[in-house]
User: Fold these one by one.
Assistant:
Number 1:
Amino acid sequence: MTPQPSNDRLLTVDRLKADIRSGEIDSVIVSFTDMQGRLQGKVVHGEFFVETALEGGSEACSYLLAVDTEMSTVDGYTMTSWDAGYGDMEFDLDLTTIRRVPYLDRTVMIQADLNYTTGERVPMSPRSLLGAQKDKAAAMGFHALAGTELEFMIYNTSYEDAQQGHYLNLTPANLYNVDYSILGSMRVEPLLRDIRNAMYEAGMIVESAKGECNFGQHEIAFRYDDVVTTADNHTFYKLSAKHMAVQRGQSITFMAKPNARDGSSCHIHMSLRGADGGLVFWDQEKGERTALYDHFIAGVLATMREFTLFYAPNINSYKRFAKGSFAPTAVAWGLDNRSCSVRLVGKGVAARMENRLPGADANPYLALSAMLAGGLYGIEHELELPPVMEGNAYESDAEHVPHTMAEARDLFAQSAIAREVFGQEVVDHYTNYADVEIDQFNAAITDWEVRRGFERH
């Protein structure tokens, strides 16, 4: 049976074929998400896609899951290397993800999983990781739902000018704190409106846009969905927002901490439903959380430090964890308490937990995998929920999240739970990812060092 999309703004295979044959569509972007959370792939001509790629498939070099941020080949990965010849991976197209790319002419995108040429899933692929956790939840009788709240900075400076100016003296789209400011939002509304409308046309359910605290900082929120669908939407949205900013001569960054002011977060809301869609996190008769919900929260908390590498995947990610910054420093949960890393909100059908640890630079597939895996571990082992945090978690004696990528790397590499839920091959792969980032950062000369020492040392 041909898979069906979730709404009529996404395309069926038959509709795509018809649109290609009529000339309404001439380009098909076939994409997957790499370790860094970026969409990679190729643009296939429409006629070739229908005649060959749709049934015959397409390939990409395995080095795409074994490079650094600069796309340089690096040592230490067992799945592929120069010794192994950097062979191919095959796109396994998810034909429920066919969406128009509204800001490009006659173009659609399809997102894919990755298989080895032998047919097996590539387990280190971020989408495969999340798919495995989704399947595990389903085997336990649950359907995992999630929503991501993604903040970003808008600059009235192009990416090219920013690079040539060494990312100094950028002009933010707003020059003061515009948190919830209608005036502040209206100042950049042409871009925000275009993004909202384009994402709706591309099949997403758009909720709202609002200003945030840092200069030029904003957020567009989308309705929660199945965990894999949410991650697919998230990556498409990030790519689109950047591309649409480029079309206006502007730039957008999703760095966790691009300057000394408040960083950009990716708060993740998650809940489980029964296989029939029924509530499992909330007891309607008693009007309170279920024991299963408490076990899930306990599991997320118990694994938070060991899984931080999946929530905070870059050196810069850890600069965001600062006291009084609305980014958490304590592994703690609270009832509608934004000083905690886990915040519980809602009742009944709206009951959910918000994980405030990830920054806007998080790879959504990895972050959602970590959160879902931790929660399911808590259910399986019936972990007891620690006492609720009352008051200011920043001032508490609760255990802290890792302060550096090196600390997070060691916790992940040594984690027995990570090996149990993700597998040794995945743990080794992403430990090497961290080693590459840490080694390259330690070898770099920063502008802070030059400013501090050029004359005075």
Number 2:
Amino acid sequence: MAASIQNSLKVALRKRMKQLLGCITPESRAKQSQAVTAKVLQNEAFRQAQRVSIYLSTSDELDTTAIICEMLRLEKIVFVPSYQGTKMKMVRLRDITDYDNLPMTKWNIKQPDFKESREDAMTNGHGIDLFIVPGVAFTRSGNRMGHGMGYYDKYLTQHAEKYPHKKITIMALALNEQIVPTEELPMDEHDVRLQFVVTENS
């Protein structure tokens, strides 16, 4: 598929998904978040993983707060993204107090300060076992469309280069409304595939 056609399809899909996600009621989002959280906590890849990267959700996304709290309770090593311009790094979240005290960005999302000194998953010599990634749209077969900045595709590629022998799992959490047919979600060569797409319905 020509790159220009593929890009225009992605732009159209992002626009449609933004309108769709804006129509989901807080009650529906909370109900789906609860169901997905329960499934993730039972997932074998999640249970086995010691070092987990997870995103801090926005009000339009499935709420990841309960999963983060449970991981900290289980004493897993939790990494969350910190952004600055085109750069993203995964830094350690120490405990629930640390989570509660994270500053808010202008987009009203909790995020560690990029300049703050924290353990960095890319440079600590251990990397990450499980990535729980955000996205705009997904297919049941593991295709993912992000927000268009390529943060995760770049990071996952760099992580694979840095830790070539490490077996990782990539999982997405999705609202039912974010699942689309495969033909509607074009994938580029550099787009990373997912092993799990967890929804209320799947």
Number 3:
Amino acid sequence: MSIRTGVRIGVDVGTVRVGVARCDPHGILTSPVETLLRAPDGSELDRLAEIIDEYAAIEVIVGLPRHLKGGEGVSAKGARRYARRIKDLRPGIRVALVDERLSSNQAHQRLRESGVDERRHRDVVDQVAAQIILESALDEERMRGDAPGIEISRPEGKDDM
């Protein structure tokens, strides 16, 4: 199956940091971009919007942290709210949620395998988790043949699901 052309941005939403990654326009390679520190007023979203514009992204993929059995907790609600805020800032861009179970564990493992010292993981682990989320979404698109994830289409404050 083919994949749509255009840069996508992957986002790993945490309570303290937000990892950001991107892919090339052909959806083949992913790269870490930046780790944003969450601000009480949400002002880090302005930087995320700049990144979206800088890469002329066609889509933003936000990780949805589910429990191992598939249920959702507080973190998932936070990711949904964050995705809606991105959609509010960039209504013309597709924003979607994809399952991100174990992406942080995979990110730590990938860093260990790359020889990155454990003490340096905190600086980049969120970006690597965002890469893993984005890679998962691109794989899903290749397998299914259509856009991945659950699209955010309603304004903030409306229930998506």
Number 4:
Amino acid sequence: MSHTNPQKRNYRQRAHSNPISYRSLYHPIRPQSLNLGALYAESNLDKKIEFVDIGCGYGGLLTHLSPIFPNVLMLGLEIRTKVSDFVIDTIKSLREYNEISHAYGNIACIRTNAMKYLPNFFDKKQVKKLFILFPDPHFKKSKHKWRFVSETMIAEIAYILHEDGLVYSITDVFDMHEWISKHFNEHPLFAKLSNDEKEEYDWLKNLSNHTQEGQKAHREKKTLHYAIFKLKTI
């Protein structure tokens, strides 16, 4: 049986979105209101979402991690309409093709504004891995307020992150890497994972091969910058 995923060329959209202007995107009133049955296979409904991909793009990370962590629920949050549609359609296609094995029933994508509604989706200390991979750098200084990583967002991440959870960052923009590192390092609740944690960093570096932006950066021979952050022990 042949299988063809949806084609990205049919889901083209502008690369940049203004997260401040989106006012009516979906969000549950509270985490308990999130309908897992509409997102995941029935066998997963007794679980909680543990991996979160912020700005999941075309979903490469989700589809890569799904078979590696088959018992973990993962959720991608994406603000762009056509891009989120592509991920949703891709997951549906993969599930239909793998109907017998029930593969890919542990991943989902929602179109929403993570900058505004992140705590609406997750309970305190729920998330074990949070990915911020190739976030929009919004180069102009006047648009830095659109960048996902800020003092406010880091406080919200601290609330939903499990005490042993990790935040993973990859970018091919050095200024963006410095911005992310500065904000996390200066926040009283977070510390950068030491470079001596080679296994974690090697795993993160491998993930860059499974996102559209990462593949593009590799083709263009760009330098990638990696960082992992954890909650401080208080």
